[in-house]
Each structure stands twice: as structure tokens, then as C-alpha cells.
Amino acid sequence: MQQISDKERQEKIKLENPWWIDGAIDADHRSMTPRAYLPDFLNLVLEAGARRAVVLMGPRRVGKTILLYHAIQQLIEQGVRPRNICYLSIEAPVYSGCRLEHLVELYAQMAESPKLENCFIFFDEIQYLRGWEVHLKRLVDDYGKTRFVASGSAAAALKLKSTESGAGRFTDFYLPPLTFYEYLLLLRKNNLIEWPRHPGDMATGWGVSANIATLNQEFVNYLNFGGYPEALFSKAIQANPQRFIKSDIVDKVLLKDLPNLYGIQDIQELNRLFTVLAYNTGNEVSLDGLSSGAGVAKNTLKKYIEYLQAAFLIIVLHRLDDAGRRFRRANYFKVYLTNPSMRSALFHPINSEHPFMGNMVETAILSQWTHSSGLENLFYARCKHEGEVDLVWRDTEKVRWCVEVKWTNRFHERPYELSTLLNFARKNKIHSVAVTTVDQRGEMAEADLKIRFVESSVYCWTVGYNLLRSRKPPVDGQIELPLQPP
Fold it and tell me: Which among 209, 282, 239, 266 is positioned nearest to 461, based on CA atoms?
């Protein structure tokens, strides 16, 4: 029986690295607008002397491979010799059964550089290699002057293996679904929202839209189709999002990635649970209620929720009491999809008048936080006999700010109905609160408290931009913007 030869593998390596001859990535990839996360990702790749590999992870179809190509192009433009950059797609059949170390040796022969000094090696779809984390760690140790980058679509597997085996050698970089800021940028519609021009507007810390009706139309489109770059420019995908998002993204994670990684036997049970969670994104749920609704035992339920979080499909927000304290038992919590367009694909797209629009807005705002370490400081509050506060920022010391996320102008007209939010703020010594609306903005005082109203679409855009650029949590509920546009 014939075996795949090293010569054939080297021919494949040549084909995968056209910049060795052309001096640039192919024209199609160059024509694509880069994700806004490219500068941060490239900075990690360029860190000298770190002896760490960068592990790029995230949900399926968010543009990880394209990000690798754009990083390669940036390296070339910054003066890196094209032949010092090697891209390897591990899922290629010709590499089947080949150790990472051997592939690196084949590349070293082609580059005529045994030690591969000042070289950059990108392993795409690395999860197709069993035990990849052990091999990658060994490469990092053996080639101290080589930068290694690994990427893959099985986000849960990468996260698990990176955490277990890569301590001290791997740096994780999470690429989230498109933020609303990026969505407008890629569609070249970022002129729909601009930086404040007047000092009074600047003080609010939010962008300004001269055409809020059009911005809101795009916001609804973002909720339905905006999380994935491919869906933005494809009418076919928008006409049948189930085929693209459900079959190609959700089902592959639920039916393949998670069962293979965690040994899940009852795949349909996991699927039922995810369907219930997706339908109820933004709602408070309980372990008892989920167990009954999805038909899953509570002990199994807890594991499944952990698995879905590891796969970057859901975000779990925990509950505080009216004094800003965490409950000892996490029997109640809120679950959000990491991308609101998943719900539209699983069920149906919605419009601005849909009764579930408020939950989708809340889900979109939470999804902007998925790249930020600040997500662990976000909670919601459940107050006795009153209701809940949608978003609360609490650090190790105290509650710092709170926001009520609404898709209505009602509370702008009737601020006195915000009693739960106002009482929570007073009890936690917060002097200013924020409330989102459909298209109203302004400030008003309610006794000793300042209530600041902002359009939901503007708030969502601002959170995404601010966390992308500064990675600093907002102070006192205010999202601070630079004085200059991006």
C-alpha cells in the first residue's frame, strides 16, 4: 500500500503559501475588509521573546482563517520576508497522520533555515490533529525564536486543551461574532453614527446618530443576520439562515464537536436543551424549570451548560440581590446566546415590533462583551417583590453601575415607573443610572438620582467599540469614547 510522501506534503505546503512567489496573499483575501480585531491579534503574534504560541479560537464562521491571512499580509507589509511565513491547514488530507514536528521540519528544509529564526508558522484547523496541544507546546520549547499561531473551529476543544496543557506556553485570543460597530464598518455604513460634536453630547459618553430611524433598521438587520461576516453580503444566506447558521454552525457544534470532546451519548438531549435556551435568550431561568422543560436531569443539565459556554454558544449571567450580593445557590440565572442571529436562524427573523425584540436587544448588548475579561463582572439583580435590573457591573468591592435595557420609549416618558432600578441604585449608593430606548435620548432627575436615556442601537454600538479599542470597563455606567473617530 502506497504512503503519502514528504515530497507531496512539501508540494502542498508550496500551494498553501503563494506569498513565497507573489509576495502577497491572494487578491480575494486582500479585497476583504479586515476584522477590527486584527491589530490586537497581530500585536500578540509579534510579541518577541515570549516563548508562547497564540491560540486563536471562537465560534465557527466568524472569520478566523481570514484573520490569519490578513495577519500574514500585515507581516509582509511590515518587512517580514515572505518565505519566513508558513501557513498549514491541518485538515488537508495530505497532512493526515503527520506530526506537527515533522511538518515544521519539512518547512525548515524548504526555508533552508534549520532553527527557523524569526519565522512565523500558522497552523489552521489544528483540532484535526490528536494531541495537538502536546506537540505545539514542544515546538514552542524547541524553537525559541519562532512564533507559532494555532487556530481552529472546535472552540470548546481548543479552549479545554489550551487551558489543560498550555499553561505558560499558550495565549488564547478569542474572536467573537461581529460586533454592531464592526457590522456597520464592514457594510461601509459607519456614517450612520458619529462622534459627538458638542461638549454636552461628549459628556454623555455615547455616539450620536443624525438618522436614528435608519440606524435602527440596520440594528434589526444586525440582530437577524449580523453576527457572521459571510451573511452580510449573501442574500442567499439571509433568505435561508437555517441552512447556513443552524446546519453549518450550531449543528456541527452540538452534533460533532461537543459529543466528541466530552463523550456525550444523548445528542438529542443536548439539542433539546440548547433549543430551549436559544428560544429564551435573555430570560431568567431556573435549574428546575430547565430540567422540566428540556427533559434533562439537573446534574446533567449543569454539565451541558458548562459545555455550551465552552463552545461559545451561550453566556450565563448570575444574579445579585437588591444589596448587590451574590446568591449562595445559583438556582436562578439568565442565559444569552453569544450571537442574537442564532435565534433568528433557529426559529425566524424578527422585526422592530416583535414582542421578543427587547430580549434580542439585551442579547446583542451582552454579545458585545464576549471578547472582554470584564464579562465576569456583569450580573443582573433580582429585587424582592419588585422585579429585576438588567445589567449590573460589580467588582470585588461594590456595585459600580447599572443599566436597564429596553426597546421602548415608555420610561423616557414615565421615569417614575423605573422604581426597581432607582431603588437598587439608591441602596447601592449609585448616583446615575442608564436606560436604553428605541429612539429617545436625554437626562432627567428623579429626586437624588440622574437618569440618562440613550438609544439601544447607539448604546450597543458604543459598548462594542469601547471594549474593542480600550478593553477598559465603563466607569459609573458611562461608556467613554476617544475624542477622535476610528
Answer: 209
